[in-house]
UniProtKB/TrEMBL annotation:
This is tRNA-t(6)A37 methylthiotransferase. Its cofactor is [4Fe-4S] cluster. Residues 2-109 form the MTTase N-terminal domain. SMART domains: Elp3. Residues 354-418 form the TRAM domain. The keyword Transferase applies. Residues 119-352 form the Radical SAM core domain. The gene is miaB. Its EC number is 2.8.4.5. Keywords: 4Fe-4S, Iron, Iron-sulfur, Metal-binding, S-adenosyl-L-methionine, Transferase, tRNA processing. Belongs to the methylthiotransferase family. CDKAL1 subfamily. The keyword tRNA processing applies. GO terms for molecular function: 4 iron, 4 sulfur cluster binding; metal ion binding; tRNA (N(6)-L-threonylcarbamoyladenosine(37)-C(2))-methylthiotransferase activity. Catalyzes the methylthiolation of N6-threonylcarbamoyladenosine (t(6)A), leading to the formation of 2-methylthio-N6-threonylcarbamoyladenosine (ms(2)t(6)A) at position 37 in tRNAs that read codons beginning with adenine.
Length: 434
């Protein structure tokens, strides 16, 4: 778990975003500290009202860069004028508010809730299906807190999901340290069985998003899982499988259990079964044993699989982990590699959202956005923002059809074009990587 320091500038909306970020960070086991010097990562939620404000943001970012090992900048200036920080020589990760909590994780397993009880937040139901994992990653401290996988019965999780839907949930988020190994402690991986039963046995109109699953666990059930996704519209066509490196040598040093080939085979299986889906993955840059050749192998894998959602994290040591005892790489080298991969990320993710422009999609309105906007998700769990939501009469929990009119690299912009066609699907859909 990481120590974080967060600073917020600007309006009430920004303060609300920071509160949401902090809630997710604390739920994941990270802890706040009072100063950037004491933090593993500093987060600056920026403002850009006037030119003087911009100058103040640049100056504070320069100070934070000197005071902390890792700097994340989010907020209005970061998203509207992120190039200003780069032009001033500030080395930071420029991220959307929603991506900050994941980025802080340093590739570790999430600890999303206390215990395994479901939570309803608006129309989003959070369902932890198990605790713990089967991995022994050399860099991860989370395993010391969660232990090995402990899977409640499928029937118990189905009932929890049913209760969430009956309580008003329209989106169920399946979470866990590693959802792909659910049931392993009982001798049989059961994620595909659980998802199939949730979709077939629960009445109501809802969507299900599956949380992080390590590639090794997914690989063993890739055919069964992809078939369940193809059979059920209730499932968002979305998989988060953190590969962490494109080098088998580095994966071995990380003790990640999977090989690059297994990750690729899993991706190819979902490509075969699904016309359109989103691949989310993570890369750790600058692991102590990563060579220039290893880094280039990660870049090549990135170009090959073309994930639409990516978390790029610079390696940082965590206490009481084996990787903390390794001789680390220099900060300058890690920054250089991180910058190269982040630039590739923006290129590939931007192309994916650009390909959506002009298409019509069924979406679920899941959350309020900033100002008079709402956040929506399409069938592949891509984020779509509709502005002036009140003028369109959009409400949280509503299904509707939108036309994508533009994008901002990590999300699309759209306008409503009418209700969801009865028994129909949006037109002009495109496959991942098209």
């Amino acid at each position: 778990m990481a120590r974080y320091h967060i600073e917020t500038y600007g309006c009430t909306s920004n303060r609300g975003e920071s509160r949401a970020i902090e809630q997710k960070l604390r739920d994941a086991g990270h802890r706040p500290v009072d100063s950037p010097e004491a933090a593993d990562v500093a987060i600056m939620n920026s403002c850009t009202v006037v030119e003087k404000t911009e100058r103040n943001m640049i100056r504070r970012a320069e100070e934070l860069q000197a005071e902390t090992a890792d700097l994340i900048i989010t907020g209005c200036m970061a998203l509207a004028q992120g190039e200003e920080f780069e032009s001033e020589g500030i080395d930071a990760r420029i991220l959307h508010w929603d991506d900050v909590p994941t980025a802080v994780g340093n590739g570790e397993c999430p600890t999303t809730t206390v215990g395994t009880e479901p939570i309803l937040d608006g129309v989003i139901g959070i369902l932890p299906i198990a605790r713990g994992c089967m991995s022994d990653c050399s860099y991860c401290i989370t395993k010391h807190a969660t232990g090995k996988i402990d899977s409640p019965p499928v029937e118990e999780n189905v009932e929890k999901a049913r209760a969430l839907v009956h309580a008003g949930a329209k989106e169920i988020r399946i979470t866990g340290q590693d959802t792909g190994v659910y049931g392993w402690d009982e001798g049989e991986r059961k994620l595909h069985t659980l998802l199939d039963r949730i979709c077939t046995e629960i009445d109501g109109e809802f969507r299900v998003r599956v949380g992080m699953a390590n590639p090794k666990g997914l690989h063993g059930i890739r055919e069964e899982l992809a078939e369940v996704f193809a059979d059920h519209d209730e499932l968002y066509n979305f998989i988060h499988a953190p590969v962490q490196s494109g080098s088998n040598d580095v994966l071995g040093d990380m003790r990640r259990q999977h090989q690059v080939s297994e990750f690729i085979e899993t991706v190819e299986t979902f490509d075969e079964y699904l016309d359109e889906w989103t691949l989310s993955t993570d890369f750790i840059v600058g692991f102590p044993t990563e060579t220039d050749e290893d880094h280039e192998q990660s870049m090549e894998l990135f170009r090959e699989i073309r994930p639409e959602k990516v978390n790029v994290t610079r390696f940082s040591k965590r206490p009481n982990t084996d990787a903390a005892e390794m001789d680390g790489l220099g900060g300058t080298l890690k920054k250089k590699r991180s910058k190269a991969m982040s630039e590739l990320k923006h290129e590939i993710v931007g192309e994916a959202y650009e390909s959506m422009v002009g298409t019509r999609r069924e979406v679920l309105v899941v959350e309020e956005g900033t100002g008079d906007s709402v956040k929506c998700r399409d069938d592949a769990y891509r984020q779509i923002i509709v502005q002036n939501a009140s003028e369109h009469g959009l409400e949280i929990g509503e299904f509707t059809t939108v036309e994508v009119t533009g994008h901002n690299t990590v999300y699309a912009l759209a306008v409503p074009v009418g209700p969801v066609p009865a028994g129909g699907k949006p037109e002009d859909r495109r496959s991942r990587g098209a």
